């Protein structure tokens, strides 16, 4: 059985911040849980060179830009599942309270964009390899979904997508 206990000591936040400053690798959702903070709080503790935030109001702009990136890795990470889907981000539009994604892609669905409170541009090691992702956070401080720059056959990141990531980050997150 998994130990679900949390480190809720007063210095848990400081411990996590120190850990991420020393080594920003790791599953942020797990680290957050272990230290009794939200995933958003843990992400905000990443060193500045690893993370920049854009306002949630830029949700549609980010999603619109992503439609031109080609195949990406779309991840939904909950306590019960890590769901990964590769494909292009289809165009979306607002309707009936959702941001609706429809197109010829395995990525599709209906996103409650009004629950998005932060968008993070994250560049950090993950499992020993550099990674780039755009992460969307909800009102509870948890990850709604993440979109990762795809990897090529040699496991390196797609340089064209890295350039798009950097351009969008510069435009929206400074």
Question: Can you tell me about this structure?
Answer:
- This protein is α+β, with helices and mostly antiparallel strands and 174 residues long.
- Helix content is 28%, strand content 31%.
- It contains five helices and nine strands.
- The protein has a six-stranded antiparallel β-sheet with strand order 1-7-8-9-2-3. The chain has a three-stranded antiparallel β-sheet with strand order 4-5-6, covered by helices on one side.
- A hairpin with a 7-residue loop joins strand 5 and strand 6.
- It is globular.
- The N and C termini lie far apart (44 Å).
- The N terminus is likely disordered.
Summarize the structure.
The chain is an alpha+beta fold and 174 residues long. It contains five helices and nine strands; from the N terminus they run αααβαββββββββα.
